[in-house]
Design brief:
Blueprint (H helix, E strand, L loop, with lengths): L16 H18 L2 E2 L5 E3 H7 L5 H6 L1 E4 L5 E4 L4 H10 L10 E10 L11 E10 L4 H18 L4 E7 L3 H15 L8 H9 L14 H4 L10 H16 L5 E2 L11 E9 L9 E8 L2 H4 L7 E7 H11 L9 E7 L2 H16 L4 E3 L6 H10 L2 E7 L1 H5 L2 E6 L4 E6 L3 H11 L1
Parallel strand pairs: 1-5, 7-8, 12-13, 12-14
Antiparallel strand pairs: 2-4, 3-4, 5-6, 6-11, 7-9, 9-10, 10-11, 14-15, 15-16
Bound molecules: adenosine-5'-triphosphate and magnesium ion.
Length: about 425
Amino acid sequence: MSVNIPRGTQDILPGQSEKWQYIESIAKDVCRRYHYKEIRTPIFEHTELFKRSVGDTTDIVQKEMYTFEDRGERSLTLRPEGTAAVVRSFVENKMFGHPDQPVKLFYTGPMFRYERPQAGRYRQFVQFGVEAIGSEDPAIDAEVIALVMDIYKAAGLQKLNLVINSLGDADSRNAHREALIGHFEPRIEEFCSDCQTRLQQNPLRILDCKKDRNHELMQTAPSILDYLNEESKVYFEKVTGYLDAIGVSYTVDPKLVRGLDYYNHTAFEVMSEAEGFGAITTLCGGGRYNGLVQQLGGPESPGIGFAFSIERFIAAMEAEGVEWPIDQGIDCFVVALGDAAKDRSVSLVHELRTAGLSADRDYQDRKMKAQLKASDRQHARFTAILGEDELAENRITLKDMAAGSQDQVPLNELAGYIKTKMEAK
Ligand code: ATP
Ligand code: MG
């Protein structure tokens, strides 16, 4: 009896895993340029952390968490997102005490949500995210947004729409909240049961409902932008002004609200506009969370961040048909014929690897022809052939696969010879 992979998860096999490494390396390099440093937090946390930060009324906390009791009877949860843990760590490690604020962090790793699996939606997925905690300078909002757009650009994605909005400060949000209740309450029976609960708990989230998105009241709902107080308005204008100054284009969408409770002021999403991307077009979500650090027991430290999943990033790359600059090949495959040559090839591949080249050999005792085929299949740049004659004369036949040429090379100079030829290309 065989056991299958759990629903909503996937194996990332060689051939695909290179794409993941590629995106992670691009994202890390952009973070280096923007001076964000990596933080690694546990994969599970106390359940309480997510209840208090993500929010009791959100889909994540109500329906999607992988929560379990450990042997010590503590309630733990596999992390559904990254911000809560980063903020917990910020507080716990007193990063608010660093002289230089904001503290600029990035993270990457698996997240877990019990969702209905479909294209672009998994139960285990990998997020890459950044958080800048400890400054309320609108320049940092623009920086964080520019950072994620630079990651997409570096990968070669072009068909993107950056959508931004302001949710305002607490006062603006409260005024808007009252207006939303007034707007939806008289006809709330026409909405789904989730929306009926949301009305009093968090009416902003009605705007985010996927079931009722076409209800006519959605189109006429009061816009947050009309409820921003002066301070919030000025803040938003500063953010968009900085984006203009650095040449990041965007669309303002007053209907953009983010699912999590902790957001205020700047909220943004990056959508793919590639044809054939599928129903779920959101690649990245982010925003400002000024009260979260306090909520988790720290001093007032305003923060902003974003997260995207590598799964949807890859889907966008495929939908746009962007080339993957991924090298699947190896530098040298050593073909050995006869027992003595086979023995010698063990140390020969080791010498190549020690010299920094990627090298491989046959382990199935195959004939010459099959070994040559293997070398081809593995996209070797060079095939080195060691037979009895060559071994006796301390040389090796080296085929340059692209050029189709062939040389005789002294056996102990093979690595240096290949490196010189590769550098010449
Ligand atoms: P959605 O509305 O698609 O459910 P969300 O608001 O739950 O998204 P966030 O919590 O903001 O998503 O997560 C940020 C990003 O993580 C999303 O924009 C998306 O790229 C990715 N993401 C979220 N959930 C999943 C999932 N189940 N599988 C793959 N990627 C996901
Ligand atoms: Mg979701």
